Amino acid sequence: MNPEVLLSRIRVVLCRPSHPGNIGAAARAMKTMGLSDLRLVAPKQFPDPEADTRATGAVDVLQRAEIVASLPEALAGTVFAVALSARQRDLGPRVGSPRETVAHLLEEAVHGEVALVFGNETVGLTNEEVLQCQAAVTIPTNPDFSSLNLGSAVQVLCYECRMSAFAGRPPVAGQGVTPFASPPATHDELEGLYGHFEAVMTETGFYNPQQPGRLLPKLRRLFSRARVEKDEINILRGILAATRQQTGHGRKD
Ligand code: SAH
Fold first, then answer.
1. 84 CB within 6 A, ligand 1
2. Mean pLDDT lowest for which of 93-97, 106-110, 244-248?
3. In terms of CB atoms within 10 Å, which of 14, 173, 175, 232 comes out highest?
């Protein structure tokens, strides 16, 4: 299924958030990862200028956010929901890692809408809220300091969703466009370079063909690793030709 469509099926549900700034941070975290469906369960203060400020370019996500009174309303129509909790509960669904649980969440997203459910900044999710979800996730942290900021927890999960939706290789803006890049050198161009090196090194006395040692294979290894481009071959051969002229051997090629 199209990754963008899968991501559009994930609701981020914030239960009773206290700080409007965290709602804005969550919206920004979502938009950076291609999610857009934010549901707020009884937010203490929303809309709020602080939320807009923290959302920066993701104010559109805030404007479309649906405000509901209870978690069942936020989950209506979903086929799978994951509770995010910093604490292990005695009762409740199986706790998994963000990665494995998000993989499962996306499998379910093929069938319909799904949700990630986050708790209040101070008290987290209630047991009743966790029990309305089919899976739970605890983000692995420093055991002595395990509670992430709400916006940060949303970011971690949204990142995992994007990675999973794009099978580990999401496109990156500008990727593959290296400034100044030229096409890769061909076999014959590389062989021409090696021959040129060998001639100049011999002429300058740096290389003795009677005692070749490992010099030539080492140079080949170096250039193979570098995946040399056409322009780079031209630069290196230009340097070698200029060196030859200086050493009185002139330009023979
Ligand atoms: N003191 C609260 C933590 C609140 S942090 C508690 O003990 O639950 C606000 C929300 O961010 C949490 O309800 C949870 O949804 C999410 N969160 C923070 N740290 C997390 C972690 N390590 N693993 C999973 N979710 C986390």
1. yes
2. 244-248
3. 14
Same domain, 191 and 69: no
> Distance (Å, rounded) from C-alpha 178 to C-alpha 180?
6
The closest alpha carbon to 27, from 150, 166, 130, 164, belongs to: 150
Q: What is the dihedral of CA 87, 158, 31, 59, to 10 degrees?
A: -10
Q: Whose CA is nearest to atom 18 of ligand 1?
A: 148
Tokens 């805030």 locate to 62
Longest dimension (CA), the chain: 87
Residue numbers of the domain that contains 91: 3-165
3-state secondary structure of 95: strand
pLDDT of residue 253: 52
Same domain, 147 and 24: yes
Q: Which of 13, 40, 84 to mutate to test the pocket of ligand 1 (most atoms within 8 A of CB)?
A: 84
| CA atoms within a 13 Å half-sphere pointing along the CA-CB vector of 234 | 6
